[in-house]
Design goal:
The structure is a single chain. With 357 residues, the chain is mainly alpha-helical. Among the domains are: 3-117, Ankyrin repeat-containing domain (Serine Threonine Protein Phosphatase 5, Tetratricopeptide repeat, Alpha Horseshoe); 288-357, Zinc/RING finger domain, C3HC4 (zinc finger) (Herpes Virus-1). It has helices at 3-9, 13-20, 37-43, 47-54, 84-113, 120-226, 240-247, 276-287, 314-324, 343-353; strands spanning 303-306, 311-313, 338-341. Strands 2-1-3 form a 3-stranded antiparallel beta sheet.
Length: 357
């Protein structure tokens, strides 16, 4: 087996091209099986070797091997499972070359039939040049096609890489947003639970104080009507003045020097009109409760208010300012800031809690 057969067998295109440039190369030399280099390339489906070798006009396309098989019949015969696309492409290459050579022979025959006086050497040289130009054009087209395929493959790989990066970034961003959302929801849940517990404690404390106040109202009235001394109050020191006012004036009725004092009947019970006075005192007392510490804002406490009119004691207002900044929002409405003191409510507190001289 010659070197050209080996190069065609292993599809070494550079070796095939170099050997074809040698003027003494035997392009149609046969092996012991009767295979030419082109037939070897066809049998092993060496597509690139077939494309370079078949363009040489010295290559015989009508050769047959020892089994009398033509080129088209031996495509991929030496392979176990040749690719259908490669075999079809090689068959197309052979057919195109046969068609090209047949058209060239037809053109030469037509010139001879017309009796044109064309020199044989000149004719051969012209057709040789044309074939060389055509081969160069085909080679240029193939090179451009190869470059286009390479460029498209590279662009496809770059596109896939960019898509993978963008998908990974999107997944990472979504995971971060999910974690942030979960943290925010958990924080809001904890804050909501804390607020509910605070509101529940505040409500229970308020209900307990109201129950204690109502429980003390009837015994206080009985003690006032009987003229017996009233026990010391267990309420806050700030309410002591109000309790003293309610317990003044023994005997059958209380003294009438204060609008908060009330009288009893001869039987020792409050009339329906007189029972409104403790309820009014209780309502005024509830309005003076701080919504944070639940303490009555009795003198000398300073009472602050927000733009919406919600009140708070000065100590709780200072504590909220330390926790939330120089201008904290009102803890009741959560939006309006504190705007100043409620002097009118402070005067009401002084009038309620100032003991009668």
């Amino acid at each position: 087996m010659a070197g050209l057969h080996v190069a065609c067998r292993f599809n070494i295109v550079s070796a095939v091209s170099d050997m074809l440039r040698h003027p003494g190369i035997l392009v149609n030399e046969k092996t012991i099986l009767g295979s030419t280099p082109l037939m070897v390339a066809v049998k092993y489906a060496s597509k690139q070797a077939v494309e370079h070798l078949i363009r040489d006009k010295r290559v015989d396309l009508d050769t047959v091997d020892n089994r009398n098989r033509r080129l088209e019949e031996t495509i991929g015969a030496a392979l176990h499972s040749p690719s259908a696309s490669e075999t079809a492409h090689i068959h197309e290459i052979i057919q195109d070359e046969r068609r090209f050579r047949s058209e060239g022979e037809g053109r030469r025959n037509s010139l001879e039939e017309e009796g044109l006086a064309i020199d044989g050497t000149h004719r051969t040289r012209v057709f040789g040049k044309l074939k060389e130009l055509l081969e160069e054009l085909r080679e240029l087209h193939k090179t451009e096609l190869d470059k286009l395929e390479l460029r498209q493959e590279e662009e496809g790989r770059q596109l896939i890489t960019r898509m993978d990066e963008q998908i990974q970034q999107l997944i990472t961003h979504q995971e971060q947003e999910r974690m942030m959302l979960m943290e925010r929801l958990m924080l809001e849940k904890e804050e909501y639970g804390t607020r509910q517990e605070e509101e529940m404690c505040r409500l229970l404390k308020k209900q307990e104080e109201e129950s204690q106040f109502l429980a003390r109202t009837r015994p206080d009235a009985d003690l006032c009507s009987s003229g017996s001394p009233r026990p010391q109050s267990t309420r806050r020191p700030s309410l002591q003045g109000m309790s003293d006012k309610m317990s003044q004036g023994g005997g059958g009725s209380v003294c009438s020097g204060s609008p908060w004092e009330f009288s009893t009947t001869d039987e020792g019970y409050l009339t329906s009109k007189e029972t409104e006075l403790p309820e009014m005192i209780h309502s005024a007392w509830k309005e003076l409760e701080c919504p944070i510490c639940m303490e009555v804002m009795a003198p000398p406490s300073r009472i602050w208010q927000c733009k919406m009119g919600h009140v708070i004691c000065e100590s709780c207002k200072d504590r909220v300012s330390l926790e939330n900044g120089a201008q904290p929002p009102c803890p009741t409405c959560k939006t309006a800031p504190f705007i100043g003191r409620n002097l009118a409510l402070e005067r009401v507190a002084r009038s309620l809690f100032t003991s009668k001289q």
